[in-house]
Amino acid sequence: HTVGCVDVFSTESNGKLPLLYRLYYPTKSSPDTSRWPSWLPHPRYADGYSSSTLPVPLFVLPTVGRLFSWLSGNPGIPANEGATPSTEKFPVIIFSHGLIACRTSYSTLCTDMASKGYYVAALEHGDKSACARMLLTSPDAEPEWLDREVLPRGAPEDELRERQLEYRTREVSQCLDSLTDLNSGLTQEYFIRYSSATNTYNNNIGLDAFKGKIDVDSAVISGHSMGGATTVRSLSKESRFKGGVALDSWMFPVRKDEAQFDKSKLLFLNFEKWQGEKNLKTMSRFEANLKIGEVDSNVVTLKDAIHYACTDILLIFQESRIGSYFLSRARGDPYERVLTNSELFSGWVQRSLHGETQAFIEACEKRKKDIFFGLEKS
User: Fold this and answer.
1) Chain segment 33-86, per-residue pLDDT in tens
2) Pairwise CA distance, residues 376 & 378, whole Å
């Protein structure tokens, strides 16, 4: 499928959190590069990324942000913004980003999953963990911003991460609620904000275009790093999810959690270079013994992969000097890494939603030289 996308917003009201997610979806239209939104939706995101790696004074940050944007080339995301969704009904994946990321940080993975026949709602969390978080009161309003909450050096993380994780799990559930509303044609509480590139198109859709097309009864939760912890907690809190995929999950925020769900619903897809003994020890409490072909564990590890292996970062910066910083410990083609993630991800989702294991078995067989199962190499 060709992929379409829109940014969906809501405002805070009646105890509901203000939502922002990029919704990727299958469309019958042909690819149209003039409708591809920029990877950086606003200069504020470049500032946010930059401040996380370079501790510079605030008055210098816009200059450093412009340099970050220039180095990235700010490419277009291969999804036709505002395109009409396909007439078929497709399942849902809600995606939770890691620390210092945003709704566009995993665009390659999310568009690839959407092209396989899914609605993918990539949240931009409002818990002050994102590189920047946009807030709008209407489609034409000037944006307000939530900046990332940064702890003083050496300060304990416990309280902040628990507060953020609790916020995220509420946000994930309310995102699924919102998709249920859109599928039912209840669009009053939500609106689309189009990028400047497509804002003048006369054939941009409204939210009513999704009525009857989102299979909210077939929903899966996924996320990377802190988003992996969000995935684990959400499976305990939200029974509507049929399964979950935790990409290189950071387990510190859920180190005291117990699995209040069937552990065989969850796939841990780890990246070898980042995982450590303490993280894996916590993960062991959520490991399940499986019998899916030759797969005997719900923990699958990509050999030699670094923490950014499912993000756009490696793809965008691989030919630049800043890329050498991210790629210094990476091996292999960054695009192949994302495709490996997508194939295993998609195979697991088919198992979760339909009980079909063949796609997951085939993905594991295809990538068997690049992966191992369980918490330790055999």
Assistant:
1) 999 999 999 989 988 877 666 554 444 445 544 555 555 667 889 999 999 999
2) 6
Please count the CA atoms within 13 angstroms of the CA of 240 that sit on its side-chain side: 18
Residue 69 CA from chain centroid, whole number: 21
φ and ψ at residue 155, rounded to 5 degrees: -75, 145
Nearest C-alpha neighbor of 161 from the set 128, 132, 135: 128
Residue whose pair of structure tokens reads 């092209």 in the numeric block = 115
Distance, CA of 374 to CA of 371 (rounded, Å): 10
Q: Whose CA is closest to 76, among 116, 118, 33, 44?
A: 33
Report whether 134 contacts 143 (CB < 8 A): yes
Q: Indicate the pTM of the whole model.
A: 0.93
Q: Which residues pair with 272 in a beta bridge?
A: none
Residue 194: count of CB within 10 angstroms of its CB: 18
Total number of residues shown for the chain: 378
For residue 218, give the amino acid letter. Answer: S
- For the segment 256-276, the average pLDDT, to the nearest whole number, is 95
User: Do strands 144-146 and 133-135 pair parallel, antiparallel, or not at all (unpaired)?
Assistant: antiparallel
Q: Please choose, from the candidates 251, 257, 256, the residue with its C-alpha nearest in 3D space to the C-alpha of residue 229.
A: 251
Q: Which helix (H) or strand (E) holds 91?
A: strand 90-96
Q: What is the pLDDT of residue 156?
A: 93
> How many CA atoms lie within 13 Å of 108's alpha carbon, on the beta-carbon side?
20
Residues in contact with 187: Cβ distance below 8 Å, sequence separation at least 6, in sequence order: 181, 206, 207, 208
Q: Can you give the C-alpha Rg of the chain in angstroms?
A: 20
